[in-house]
Write a structure and sequence with these properties.
By secondary structure, the chain is mainly alpha-helical. It has 9 helices and no strands. The chain folds into 2 domains: 61 residues, Serine Threonine Protein Phosphatase 5, Tetratricopeptide repeat, CATH 1.25.40.20; 86 residues, Serine Threonine Protein Phosphatase 5, Tetratricopeptide repeat, CATH 1.25.40.20. Keywords: ANK repeat, Repeat.
């Protein structure tokens, strides 16, 4: 098994110790699989906070997009992984970056009923009701902070 295959398996399974060892041996944390997923995408989608932290500290691109435009924060939002969303927000992930189809992490959280994830995204910073590039034409200003009962 190649070092990148070992890294893919370790990030998917949440084996932080092995991830650290593989990084020390020179594993490329930016390497993409056939779908464009990086090690951070895999760790995030599976909610492995320790592995995510290791990868972020090693310089993983927190806003990298896979083939259809999902970023790690989109994956976490779509899966309702609040601790992962919070970690990515703390490390300045772009909460506004939409997928290629225009859907944002907020959309992913709300569409799947993850209200606490949606709350975290809303409270993270300015969010627009459409892509910021269109703001001058037909977007509303950033939404206000929210809390749930």
């Amino acid at each position: 098994m190649s070092i990148i295959d070992e890294l893919r398996l370790a990030t998917r399974n949440g084996n932080d110790e092995q991830v650290q060892q593989l990084i020390a041996k020179g594993a490329d944390i930016h390497e993409r699989d056939a779908l464009g997923w990086t090690a951070l995408h895999r760790a995030t989608a599976n909610g492995h906070i320790a592995v995510m932290t290791t990868l972020i500290e090693a310089g993983a691109d927190i806003n990298s997009e896979e083939d259809i435009g999902r970023t790690p924060i989109y994956c976490a939002s779509q899966n309702g992984l609040l601790p992962a969303v919070n970690l990515l927000i703390e490390n300045r992930a772009d909460v506004n970056r939409p997928r290629k189809n225009g859907r944002s992490p907020l959309y992913a959280a709300a569409a799947n009923g993850y209200i606490f994830v949606a709350e975290a995204l809303l409270n993270a910073g300015p969010l627009w009701t459409c892509h910021p590039a269109l703001a001058a034409h037909r977007c509303t200003p950033p939404v206000k902070r929210v809390t749930w009962p």
